[in-house]
Amino acid sequence: MLQTMAKSDQTFTSQEEPNVGEYHATADELMAIDAAMASIDRGEVASESEVRAVFAKFLRE
Question: Where are the alpha helices (DSSP H) in the chain?
Answer without folding.
Answer: 27-41, 48-60
